[in-house]
Amino acid sequence: PKLCRSFLENEPSLAPSFILCTEDSLSDSDLPDALTRIRELLPQLNRRPKSSPVFLRPRNAEVLGEFLAMK
């Protein structure tokens, strides 16, 4: 998360797109913390140029629902 924030705040051109993965990149026990961090990060990602896409990879339908509920 700190690295991602650093890119967003200092060098957004170094990360032309982001992939936020909850599939096989983290354990079940880490999922709640990951979702909290994603929820906090999305407003910053929304301020990036539209040419810099953000990809969300939900691990299941429940996590997809959580992504869709994030504002």
Descriptive notes:
By secondary structure, this protein is mainly alpha-helical. It is built from three helices and two strands. A two-stranded parallel ribbon has the order 1-2. The chain is globular and about 30 Å long. The two termini are 19 Å apart. The mean pLDDT is 81.
What spatial order of strands do you see in the largest sheet? 1-2
Helix % is: 40-55%
- Written as H for each helix and E for each strand, in order along the chain, the element string is HEHEH
Total of helices = 3
Mean pLDDT: 81
The shape is globular
Distance between the first and last residues' Cα: 19 Å
Name its key features.
globular; two-stranded parallel ribbon; mainly alpha; 71 residues; 2 strands; 11% strand
Give me a quick take on this structure.
The protein is mainly alpha-helical.
How do the strands and helices of this protein lay out in sequence?
Elements: H1 2-10, E1 18-21, H2 31-46, E2 54-57, H3 61-69
Parallel strand pairs: 1-2
